[in-house]
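Many introductory courses stop at the sequence. We go one step further.
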Amino acid sequence: MLGKKDIEIKGARQNNLKNISVNIPRDKITVITGVSGSGKSSLAFDVIYGEGQRRFLDSLPTFSRNRISQLKKPDVDFVFGLSPVIAIEQKRGLVNPRSTVGTMTDIYDYMRLLYATVGTVKCPYCDEKFDIKTSGQIIEAVLSLPAGTKIEFLTPVCKLYGETYEFLFDEIRQKGYSNLVIDGKRIDISEEIDIDEYCDHDIKIVIDRFEVKKNIEKSITNSLETALAVIGEHVLIAEIISEDVSKQVKDKFYSSFGCKEHHITMANIESHYFAFNNMSSSCRTCGGIGTSKKADPRLMIINHEKSINEGAFDPSVYNSRGEITYKHLIMYNIAKHYKFSLDTPFNQLPDDIKDILFYGTKGEKITIESPPNSNKRHWIIGRTIQFSGFVNQTEHWYRETIRKDKVNEAVLEWFKNKMVEYTCPDCGGKKLKKQRFSVLINDKNIHKLCWMQLTELYDFMENLTFPPNKKHIAEPIIQEIKKRLLLLIEIGLDYLSLGRRADTISGGEAQRIRLASQISSGLMGMIYILDEPSVGLHARDSKKVIKILNQLRDIGNTVIVVEHDMETIENADNIVEIGPGPGIHGGEIVATGSIDKIKKAKHSITGRYLCGKDMIVVPKERRKYNGNKLTILGAKENNLKDIDVEIPLGILVCISGVSGSGKSSLVNEILYKKLKSLSDPRIIPGEHRSLEGYEHINGIINIDQSPIGKSSRSNPATYVGLFDSIRRLFTETDESIENGYTIANFSFNSKNSGRCEHCKGDGRIVTKLQFMPDVETVCPICKGQRYKKDILDVRYNGKNIYEVLDMSVEEAAEFFKDKKNIYHKLNIMNQLGLGYLKLGQPSTTLSGGEAQRIKLASELGKIKRGTSNLYILDEPTTGLHISDIKKLLSCLNLLIEKGHTLLVIEHNLEVLKAADYIIDLGPEGGKNGGYVVAKGTPEQVKEVKESVTGQFLKQVL
């Protein structure tokens, strides 16, 4: 029997879908489109993907199902013609700061393997290079020495950043070693060691000493394994200590061992040696994250005008009041020794005294005396100590804390409030222990390769050559790396590097990385479901995604894309439009078929825009700025090339440019963080010289796509600030006044108030089952209405509090039309195309685009004339149909009319053509970007030949 040619969906009722039936052809590209909230994702992800995944999991044995969270059956009669389904969504979720582009694509695993197998070691003391050895090769070299030769194994060690040498010696003692060689001198660790803390010293541990004789292989092997593992560095030094061995024999041994001059080698290196997520390989200061925390003196002082005794310091750092403690004694004696008063206002203390308080006495010792008013004898009195300073103390406590297995959350919160994040001072952001960078390929260590742009890395791999004994090992690994790199470059991510942190890339970039990984798997007969793969792509690069989708289809897969991008829709084999409106007005099949059918369909909104019947019109004239401007001077963050950028205020300014040209670095890393750092010193802005003109703005608001709440209890009504006003109306009813109900009684979050205590105000009970998905049942007490019966009996205009939360924004606007403050906010949400959302809809069910528009509605609901705010929006068109973009632009204009400035990072040409001023970065992404290519009105930008954006603007203006 031949396989089905279509995926047949019968009776889909998931979310707002109205019992629809539709056929989707297999082995073709189908685009599901329609206005925002019409039910596209419900059909693609909840029905097709949900049912495909559920059936696949049902086919697994019980043992496997026990270890996988089970999926709920979607509300559909039947789906025929399914094969294994892979969904590539944009949902970022919680991104691990350890995750990078290299780990997401598995390329870094191949790179580690390459370095471990064919890397060359550079001697840390000189430039001599030698190959990585195995235990067998080292034992063979030792056994080649004449019988009776005495030999010693050593391993070099260095102290941990910010710790004392005593800390290092304690670690060595705990490992069971007692002999050291420090700067060439032999020292017994059990004796007191006099060492200068402020100098770097050459320290080696003596691991073992033995004589070459018969049957010694086992003893050498044990010594060798211990030496390599003692500090996890796999670095070994061998010294022949017999004086009767000839120079010729020594030279021959040292040449075969490693570095001829310094007698050092590296052995038994495996791929995990370069894994920054492996605790034995990661930098011990930052734990492989690349950033560490630094105590900031500014966060330790709460009032510069008070003296130390009056409470200038934050009490958690130094509390001047209360019983005399260790810190009081230190402070009293520092003041006495350095002759300053603890009653002098902090801002009048000399800089050298402040330096001692924060950074310590730098080796100078103080004898601790008892203050005259103290009756208690303290253990520290009479001792001579050196004070390390509050900054150094805090950093020491922080390092000690993060080395522990269990970390107290309250303690971490304290560190967060007293410290700022910065590049790790030990590894310089390289994440690995420094010995790892002695292993090279073509004179480059693994860190340098990870920070090459992908195109550069591909060229580097292409030109690598190896001697015959390494070629057969290296070539298969390099082929795998090149294959994966080529896919990333073809999909338009050539400007990224493998070391780029996953939490710094956009949802669209993450989705395209996963898409490239799927193609490299080479599977066929699959169903791929994608969520707006064009997000974050410049008009020039959307062709690259279309090419990749065609590749997936041509190797025998079915591709289903939820998309609004007109170019992707035009290139699809089949189109399904859901609508006609959002929410309760949607959920029906409006049109289905080829592009020509959609253009002719009577009720298709997409068709009207495709054939030009509807369009977003170009403004007749551009607004002039208000005379003030923000000026960023010397922007150098990431790939920005020391540029000066002027942002005119009081108008709609768009930052455009190809992907990776430096837009987010300029706006989010420099401008936003600099303005926020003026009130919060913990925020470190991106590299730039200065920012001028910030006195012209009152506030800065970043309207991004992060969720409006972390739990299902947060909802649009609470975020926009409607719910308090609605609850207040309920407290004014006769029943509430009679029963003495307050605003708290109408909250479903407050304990012992009006919520149903059986479900704790959630309306549902979740039961966890083994082998099956969690079962959600409606609460039997409140019947899903979240509140106690007596609260539900209170009615305002015929509706109780639950019925109000269950209304859509559109219905609620009609219901509250006589309440000006509530109606105003609901009307704004309606204008933004959010009329279909329910007031009490859990925030966890909202898309990134919906969350961003709710934030925008919240801001529009509270704007006042006379203030001048700067609003930053990063790609606000994500998830928006072109008809919704029209609504969005009219709402953005409301903000500008009230005197505010809008700074929008955008690729969408419909928004760019409506801008008053464009700053176009480029000309390319990555290292070839970071310049201002064009600036001015859209008409001026389109005339600049070098501007890629300008060439596309010509088509729409």
